[in-house]
Every structure is written in structure tokens, then in C-alpha cells.
Amino acid sequence: MPHAMTLDGFFCFSLHTGSVLLGWLGFVSAFFSIIGWSMSFNDIDGMIKNLNITNGRNPEDFSDADIDFMRNMAISIISMLIGFYVIEALASLFLIHGASNNKRLFLVPWMIERATQLIFYTILWLFIGLYFFTSPQTIGYSLFAFVFGGISLFFNFYCFLCVYSLFVLMREAEEYQRLVGGQQSRPPNYGNQPGNTYVKI
Fold first, then answer.
1. Could you give the CA distance from residue 70 to residue 50 in angstroms, rounded to a whole number?
2. Which of its termini does the chain have fewer beta carbons within 10 Å around, N or C?
3. Per the structure, how many domains does the chain have?
4. 27 neighbors 92 (Cβ within 8 angstroms)
């Protein structure tokens, strides 16, 4: 049964192929992001020295307490990003396995992770757009960010719909097979049919 919020395919690909492509794309992107952010641990002090502080302070004049605070913040943020990309990599592998082997429950981690991203990016998109629109000097940047962010959000939502549509398709196929299998395994009820005659052998 078709649903209002489901797709028949992903661009020119089937839902299975599109979901596998999204899984590989997410895994490769997360893999290189993990490597990049892991390498940044070696240059945290360099990143702190290159900071441009709006109050005019020279990074060389930072106190030890300031440097320790910024170092701990940088380590915490980078660790959170690495953890996020590890989750994305695992969810993408589950998606590849589920789409390739018709196991719909393996699609759930990716859908939860992507839905969380969509909510966060939507809030961030609206916040940045409203922030820039409040200043006449940044109206050009706000229009660019609003349009570019909207296109990115639409594409990510389309990707989510692809995997969700495959999940719905697999669920309906399982329900149909369960229904057909139950009818085939049920013995005929001859006793309720009129006109049956029984021959004793």
C-alpha cells in the first residue's frame, strides 16, 4: 500500500541500491572525518595560538589558566565529534547490511541518527538565518546561508525518505509473507462446507 511520505526510488536508482549508496557514502565520509579529527589532537596548542579573539587580546598573552581551559574545551569538542562520526560509521555499516540482505531492523540506527541530524541542522539553519537577518550589513550572507542551508536540508531529508521508504517496503513484504504463509499452513476446514460427503476407507 503506498504511503504519502514514501518514495518509489532514489533518483534513478532503486530504494535498495540508493540505501546501499547512502550507507557507503556515510561510512567513507565518517571514516575520513575520524582520521582528520584524530590527527587534530596533535596540534591543539597550535590551534589555540591561531585563535582570533574579538577583544583584541594577543594569543601569546594568554594565561596558563586560559590555555588549559581552551585545551580542555578543544579536547572535549574533538572527542564528541569523533564519537559522533564513530556512531555514523557504525549506523552506515548497519544500513549497508540491512539494505543488502532485506533486514529492515538494521536500517533503524541510521534513521535515528539521520533524524537527529535533521532536527539539529534545522534548528541551526533557522538560528543562523534569523541571526544574520537582524543585521542589514549581513543580509547578503544571510540569503546565501539560508538558500544553501535549505538545499542541504532538502537533500538530507530526501536521503532519509529513501531509507524510510525501504523500511516500509520491507515491513509490508514481511507482513504479506506472514499472511500468505499462515494461510498456506492452515489445514482445510472441510467440516464447515455444506455438501461434503465422507467415505470411510
1. 12
2. C
3. 1
4. yes
Question: Does any domain span residue 8?
Answer: no
pTM given for the model:
0.76
Is residue 159 included in any domain, yes or no? yes
- Other beta carbons less than 10 A from residue 23's beta carbon: 24
Q: Determine, yes or no, domain membership for 6.
A: no
- pLDDT, residue 3, reads 64
Helix or strand or coil: residue 14? coil
Kindly report, residue by residue over 107-126, the tens digit of the pLDDT: 999 999 999 999 998 988 88
Task: Output the nine-digit C-alpha cell for 153.
Answer: 536540508
Q: At 106, which amino acid appears?
A: F
The DSSP secondary structure of 51-106, one letter per residue, reads ---TT---GGG--HHHHHHHHHHHHHHHHHHHHHHHHHHHHHHHHHHHHHHT-GGG
Give yes or no for residue 30 having a pLDDT over 70.
yes
Q: How do residues 49-108 score in pLDDT, each as one tens digit? A: 666 554 455 656 667 777 788 888 888 989 999 999 999 999 999 999 999 999 999 999
Residue 73 in domain: yes
Grid coordinates 548497519 are at which residue?
94
Q: Residue 107 sits in which domain range?
A: 15-181
C-alpha distance from residue 3 to each of 51, 153, 164, 179 (Å): 51, 22, 11, 20
